């Protein structure tokens, strides 16, 4: 393949025929070959399992450089946003491609307050889930059900995106906290408009009629940071699920519900829960790191070191770095001594010095340390991935919006290479062996 400077065209020779393919370049230098006409012109498709090397869309929302370990939302460095913004400011930024001024932020905040309740009938849903139902399954069901209670949000969600987004962002927080309260058999605590987005969530989770919860600013700040770090990450598995369902014309709720289900998987957002289970297992095994390292290297063992590795990052995940730094601070403020933190640090040290992991560029990712902070905040392990979903929601909505507004969007429908049986003669039931 060669590239001509003038026309930015790649030449591809197939079966002796020369095919010209346009080259595309993103604003930060991402390079791609536009193969959209390839099948029609040659009869060839491309084979790329897991879409490791396929750009499914162009996007203006998030940029990440996996070699340098940098991440930007709408052109702003994640470090600046995590340090200096409110989560709701970042949500606004993702949706509007601009940081809100004071007025815009206030009106967004007012909408979030206005929509914080969920329809009382929906509360009965919680009574019908079995006591140990995973919170992620409850979350996806409840978000999908919002369509039935607020159909006007589906009619034209793009018409007033602030209303649509703030309704979802506000209600998902209430749903998440209610599901936790139901799971432990405690009375529901309703949202309070005098609290911030994060403070409100913490109060709904931990306040009880017998023991008032004191919303500590340090705890609010830690949660705020975590949600910002999770807010978007370009075309990851759950975001692609959201876009995929939306590309068929699916409504916003069903698309987000699909994203929640995709996020639940242990290779994706479910990794934060899996990390804690892994660290606990190492702890119970008298810190036998060697055993787990050996399991992770064993090709015949499906075990992987949760919280290590990433499809795009070939170096430290910048979000992981910020979380690791925040860990010490929040554990000190809360006076929490978590033995898992030391195990995590030791494991990281071992991995970063082990040829198997070094040669595969396996570094700690966002999920490696986030669980330790969530534990310190009192959030139960089975809610960790729900926390990830709360953070990722503005990104999913922004990506869904972008997909819907992009005239180039087509229904997501990958090809396949069929490797099954050639056509064969049908055998009636009585004649089959
Ligand atoms: N432990 C042990 N080996 C690993 C790990 C790991 N965590 N991750 C990758 N590898 C090995 C893998 O076995 C393969 O080795 P080989 O080349 O010898 O076959 C090589 O590294 C490349 O792995 P891959 O599966 O081809 O890479 P991928 O890009 O398809 O997968 C990943 C990325 C994140 C799914 C994977 O690294 C993984 O399973 N990590 C553990 C789960 C995890 O922490 N997920 C959270 C990701 S970050 C947040 C998010 O997206 O939600």
Notable features of this structure?
Citrate Synthase, domain 1, globular, disordered N terminus, Rubrerythrin, domain 2, 7 strands, binds carboxymethyl coenzyme *A, three-stranded antiparallel sheet
Structure explained in plain terms:
The protein is of the alpha+beta class and about 425 residues long. The protein has two domains: about 5-55, Rubrerythrin, domain 2 (Single Sheet), CATH 2.20.28.60; about 85-410, Citrate Synthase, domain 1, CATH 1.10.580. Helices cover about 50% and strands about 5% of the residues. The chain has 19 helices and seven strands. It has a four-stranded antiparallel β-sheet with strand order 1-2-3-4. α8 (about 160-185) runs parallel beside α9, α8 runs antiparallel to α19 (about 385-405) and α11 (about 235-245) runs antiparallel to α12. The chain is globular. The termini are far apart.
How many strands appear in the DSSP assignment? Answer: 7
Relative strand content: 5-15%
Q: CATH homologous superfamily of the largest domain? A: Citrate Synthase, domain 1
* Named CATH architecture of the largest domain: Orthogonal Bundle
CATH class of the largest domain: Mainly Alpha
Strand order of the largest sheet: 1-2-3-4
Helix content: 40-55%
Low-pLDDT regions = 1-6
Shape: globular
Secondary-structure element series: EEEEHEEEHHHHHHHHHHHHHHHHHH
Overall structural domain count: 2
Which structural class is indicated by helix and strand composition? alpha+beta
């Amino acid at each position: 393949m060669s590239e001509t400077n003038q026309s930015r065209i790649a030449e591809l020779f197939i079966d002796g025929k020369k095919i010209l393919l346009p080259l595309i370049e993103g604003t930060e230098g991402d390079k791609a070959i536009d193969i959209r006409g390839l099948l029609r012109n040659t009869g060839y498709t491309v084979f790329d399992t897991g879409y490791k090397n396929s750009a499914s869309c162009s996007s203006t929302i998030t940029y990440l450089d996996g070699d340098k370990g940098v991440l930007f939302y709408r052109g702003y460095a994640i470090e600046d946003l995590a340090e200096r913004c409110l989560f709701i400011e970042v949500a606004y930024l993702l949706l509007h491609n601009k940081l809100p001024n004071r007025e815009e932020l206030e009106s967004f905040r007012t909408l979030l307050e206005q929509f914080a309740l969920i329809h009382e009938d929906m509360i009965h849903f919680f009574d019908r889930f079995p006591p140990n139902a995973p919170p992620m399954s409850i979350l996806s069901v409840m978000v999908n059900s919002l369509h039935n209670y607020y159909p006007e949000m589906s009619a034209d969600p793009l018409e007033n995106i602030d209303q649509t987004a703030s309704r979802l962002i506000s209600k998902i927080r209430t749903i998440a906290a209610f599901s936790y309260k139901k799971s432990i058999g405690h009375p529901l605590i309703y949202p309070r408009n005098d609290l911030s987005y994060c403070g409100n969530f913490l109060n709904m989770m931990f306040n009880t009629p017998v023991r008032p919860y004191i919303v500590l600013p340090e705890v609010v700040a830690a949660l705020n940071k975590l949600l910002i770090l999770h807010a978007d990450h370009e075309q990851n598995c759950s975001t692609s699920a959201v876009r995929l369902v939306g590309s068929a014309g699916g409504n916003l709720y069903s698309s987000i519900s699909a994203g929640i289900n995709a996020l639940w998987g242990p290779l994706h957002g479910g990794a934060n829960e899996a990390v804690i289970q892994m660290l606990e297992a190492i702890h119970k095994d008298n810190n036998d790191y060697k055993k787990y390292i050996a399991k992770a290297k064993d090709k015949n063992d499906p075990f992987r070191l949760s919280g290590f590795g990433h499809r795009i990052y070939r170096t430290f995940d910048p979000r992981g770095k910020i979380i690791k730094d925040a860990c010490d601070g929040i554990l000190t403020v809360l006076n929490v001594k978590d033995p898992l933190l030391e195990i995590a640090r030791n494991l990281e040290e071992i991995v970063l010095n082990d040829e198997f992991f070094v040669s595969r560029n396996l570094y700690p990712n966002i999920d490696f340390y986030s669980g330790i902070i969530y534990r310190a905040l009192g959030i139960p392990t089975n809610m960790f991935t729900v926390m990830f979903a709360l953070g990722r929601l503005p990104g999913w909505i922004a990506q869904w919006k972008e997909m819907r507004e992009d005239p180039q969007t087509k229904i997501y429908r990958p090809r396949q290479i069929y490797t099954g049986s050639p056509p064969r003669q049908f055998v009636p039931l009585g004649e089959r062996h």
